[in-house]
Every structure is written in structure tokens, then in C-alpha cells.
Amino acid sequence: MKTFIISYIQNLKLEDVEYFIQKNRYSICQKDIETIFRYIKYKGKEIVEGDFHSLEEIKLEVEPATYDIIMELFQKYKCYLGS
Description:
By secondary structure, the chain is mainly α. It contains five helices and no strands.
């Protein structure tokens, strides 16, 4: 599963993140959406491999409500990481 997730991250586009946010009816400003995309694209592999330090880093970059959403989703989907 990790290999699939890493491959998905490599092909991820900003539009994919925007679509996920709209589809799930999250209210996140464009600046935070771009930050989320950047972190997924460039730090996602580290997270998939078990280095969760980036989750603390992004906390300083986004609005508190956005960070809460990120952590909620991380808790929901971390089972796919084998964590």
C-alpha cells in the first residue's frame, strides 16, 4: 500500500487537493490549500515512511482550523500507512 501511496503523491496535482476539499465540503482558504499541496508533494513520502515531523511543521504554516482538519484526516487514513 505504501508504494501505491508514494506513486500517487508523485503524480498529485494542486487540482486534486482542491477537488478533495470541495468534494468533502471543507472550508479551507486557498493559501492553506497550496500549503497542504506543497507538504504532501514534498514531505508526503517522509510521512508515509513513518516520519511524522512534517505534521508538526505544517501546524505553523496553516490556520488552526485547517490543522485540525489535517489531523482528523491523518487519524482517519493512517491505517493505510501501517502505523
